């Protein structure tokens, strides 16, 4: 099994955590304001990671810290879009619109680095775009105005996360950057900036009920700490555009969780979109060239 396939498997697990996070954010927002929730989430994750590996983190260099600041700053905008988006639109909509990262990542790579996507990636991106359209638009393919405010905020999340992925890919390509250290310190940067914003525009508070405490702790440990530390480690062996496609599974997981726990039922059109997006992952992962070569070899042997 290649390193890229292993990295993709890790990223699928990360995506599962983030798919669950939309439902948990919805629970947490019953008692906490968005910036306060994100401060708890990221600072909690940073504190746990620091306690578990403080010796490794004390040797951090300036380049790693520089990229931690840049990626952490980008993550603030990711979660402004995601958290406020969940507040003003449906769980399914927020999950799928945030997945538009898959579209923006190759576009930004082409705009800023002149990295044109390959033919297969172009097909996969189009499949994802069609799937997202089927998931989020009304039956007559018009925009759902009732959810427009939340949907636009989720688009902010998608754009910011595409920038985050490109920054992370660029960062881990440097030998002096420690991917694990960057993964941990970006949590501290994002949490600190959210805490500052919470004091400016909100009244920070702790959760009041056991359900919200549980949701915040799960968000901090699994959806933030483990997920954001694993992402840069895995991204050393794949590309930002590739990661963006894998992350289209996030809204599929979000829709499943929304159906099971929040009883959100999707239309047949939306389920078709979800199936199309899942199919795009398999298309991306299958090496058609090698399959063709293997089939030719079998025919020659016969």
Overview of the structural elements:
- Helix 1 packs antiparallel against helix 9 (210-235), helix 3 packs across helix 8 (179-201) and helix 6 (119-136) packs antiparallel against helix 12.
- With 302 residues, the chain is mostly helical.
- The protein has helices at 3-28, 34-57, 62-88, 91-98, 101-113, 119-136, 148-172, 179-201, 210-235, 240-246, 249-261, 268-285, 288-301.
- It has one domain (3-287).
Rg calculated over all Cα atoms? 20 Å
- The average pLDDT is 83
What does the main sheet amount to?
A: none
| Tally of contiguous helical segments | 13
Low-confidence stretches: none
Number of strands: 0
Listing every helix as H and every strand as E from the N terminus to the C terminus, the arrangement reads HHHHHHHHHHHHH
Number of domains: 1
End-to-end span in angstroms?
28 Å
Q: How would you sum up the global shape?
A: globular
Helicity range of the residues? Answer: over 70%
Class per helix and strand makeup: mainly alpha
* Strand percentage: under 5%
